[in-house]
Amino acid sequence: MKTMTWISAVLLFMNFSAALAQKEAKATAATTSTGEVKDKNPNGPVAKYDRTVFDFGDLIQNSPGTATFTLTNDGKEPLIISTAKASCGCTNLTYAKDPILPGKSTAISATYNAAALGSFAKTITVTTNADVQPVVLQIKGIVQPKKE
To answer: Which is deepest, 74, 107, 110, 111, by most CB within 10 Å?
Structure first.
């Protein structure tokens, strides 16, 4: 019985180690549109954000606030934003649909409607041809009541 427990523990450890190694390998590789893993192109586009969190501080209720994130292509091929999605309908996004050439920048703007009082933290998930995983940007702040 002790032998079976010991063997089970060793097998569990080996499976965990193998799964972790696969996850690390995928994190350093790019994927094709079919999900097939390939080596990341060293001459490809490189997405660099000026910030990933924008703190509005205090906003007045029903006075929307707009956050701007600057995305720069530090790579050698055009950078394409394939999708940008806000975590809720209270945030409107604008972003470039055209490719961003090497060395050039574009703005991703997120306008929060500030209708509900209190603290908020919303996310914007951006997917580009430069990243294996989408990048998550965040806007946050506190909506204060309008002073009479």
So the answer is: 110
Task: Give the position of tokens 């998930």.
Answer: 125
Answer whether 0.70 is exceeded by the pTM: yes
DSSP assignment of 86-119:
ESSTTEEEE---SPBPTT-EEEEEEEE---S-EE
Whether 111 contacts 85, CB under 8 Å: no
Residue 79 is classified by DSSP as: B
**Domain locations in the chain as residue ranges:** 2-38, 47-144
**In angstroms, rounded to a whole number, what is the distance separating the alpha carbons of residues 114 and 60?**
7
Per-residue pLDDT of 36-82, as tens digits, reads 444 567 889 999 999 999 999 999 999 999 999 999 999 999 999 99
Beta strand 65-73 pairing with 47-49: antiparallel
Determine the pLDDT at residue 2. 55
Closest Cα partner for 14 from 26, 25, 3, 22? Answer: 22
Rounded CA gap, 124 and 12, in Å? 37
Terminal Cα-to-Cα distance of the chain (whole angstroms): 76
The CATH fold of domain 47-144: Immunoglobulin-like (2.60.40)
